C-alpha cells in the first residue's frame, strides 16, 4: 500500500518550499512526492478565476522539474507528476520518471493520454470527471491503475459512498476530503494507492492548502497503513 503526497501547487512557486515538502513527505512515510507540470495560461481560465495569478506563479519550468526530480532521488522518494500537455511529457521523460499520473480533468485528452502511454511506463488515472459506466479505454504496456475520485474541493464525507466502491477494480483512491479518515477507510477496504494533497500549513495562501494533509496527518495515515498491513 502506497501513499502519494500530492504537493501539486502547494509549493506556491517557491522551490525552497518545494524541497522542504519533498523532505517532509519522505519523513512522513509517503512513497511518492507528486507535482503538477503545466502551461498555466493554456490550462487555467483567466476570466472568473481568482487563482489565475497564483496558477501562473506556481508553473514549473523545465529546470524546476529536473531539480525536483533530482531532489527526490537524493532524498530517496519517487518523483511523480501529472503532465497536462504533450510537451511536458517529454520534460518528464528526461527525468526518468517511473510512472505518469493522468488527472481527472485530463481524462478525455486523448493526445496527452496516448503520449503518456507511448512511453511504455505505468499510468495512474483518476476518474473524478469520468461519467461513463465502464472505465475509459486506456491501455499502456506498463499497465494502468484507476483511482476512485470525487472532484469536489473539499469532498463531503457523505458524498464518497466508499462502501459501494469495489477496490478489486479500482487500484486506489484520490482523496479530496478534509482529514485522513476517508483515506484510512479506503485502505481498510482494499485500496492499494492513496493520493492526497500535502502541505506544511493549511492556512497558507493557495486553493489546495486548506484541504491538504499536514506532515502530522501524513504520519498518522502512514502508521495506520503499516499497522493495517501487519493485521492483514
The total beta strand count reads 8
- Mean pLDDT across the residues is 94
State the distance separating the first and last CA atoms: 12 Å
Instruction: Please tell me the total number of domains.
Output: 1
- The topology string of helices and strands comes to EHEHHHEHEHEEEHEH
Residues in helices, as a percent range: 25-40%
Query: Strand portion, in percent?
Result: 15-25%
Strand order of the largest sheet: 3-2-1-8-7-6-5-4
Main pleated-sheet profile: 8 strands, parallel
Which CATH C-level class is it? Answer: Alpha Beta
Number of helices: 8
**Radius of gyration based on Cα positions:** 17 Å
Form type: globular
Low-pLDDT sequence parts: none
The CATH topology is TIM Barrel
Give the CATH H-level superfamily. Answer: Aldolase class I
CATH hierarchy: architecture: Alpha-Beta Barrel
Query: Which structural class is indicated by helix and strand composition?
Result: alpha/beta
Amino acid at each position: 500500500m502506497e501513499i502519494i503526497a500530492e504537493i501539486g501547487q502547494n509549493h506556491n512557486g517557491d522551490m525552497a518550499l518545494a524541497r522542504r515538502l519533498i523532505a517532509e513527505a519522505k519523513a512522513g512515510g509517503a512513497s511518492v512526492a507528486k507535482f503538477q507540470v503545466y502551461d498555466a495560461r493554456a490550462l487555467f481560465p483567466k476570466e472568473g478565476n481568482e487563482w489565475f495569478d497564483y496558477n501562473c506563479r506556481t508553473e514549473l519550468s523545465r529546470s524546476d522539474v529536473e531539480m525536483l526530480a533530482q531532489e527526490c532521488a537524493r532524498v530517496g522518494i519517487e518523483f511523480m507528476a501529472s503532465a497536462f500537455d504533450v510537451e511536458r511529457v517529454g520534460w518528464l521523460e528526461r527525468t526518468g520518471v517511473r510512472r505518469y499520473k493522468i488527472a481527472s480533468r485530463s481524462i478525455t485528452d486523448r493526445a496527452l493520454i496516448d503520449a503518456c502511454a507511448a512511453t511504455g511506463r505505468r499510468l495512474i488515472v483518476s476518474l473524478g470527471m469520468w461519467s461513463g459506466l465502464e472505465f475509459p479505454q486506456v491501455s499502456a504496456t506498463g499497465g494502468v491503475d484507476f483511482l476512485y475520485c470525487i472532484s469536489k474541493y473539499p469532498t463531503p464525507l457523505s458524498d464518497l459512498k466508499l462502501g459501494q466502491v469495489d477496490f478489486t477494480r479500482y487500484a486506489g483512491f484520490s482523496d479530496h476530503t478534509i482529514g485522513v479518515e476517508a483515506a484510512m477507510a479506503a485502505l481498510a477496504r482494499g485500496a492499494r494507492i492513496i493520493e492526497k494533497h500535502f502541505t506544511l500549513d493549511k492556512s497558507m495562501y493557495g486553493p489546495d492548502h486548506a484541504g491538504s494533509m499536514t506532515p502530522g496527518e501524513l504520519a498518522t495515515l502512514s502508521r495506520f497503513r503499516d499497522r493495517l498491513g501487519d493485521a492483514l
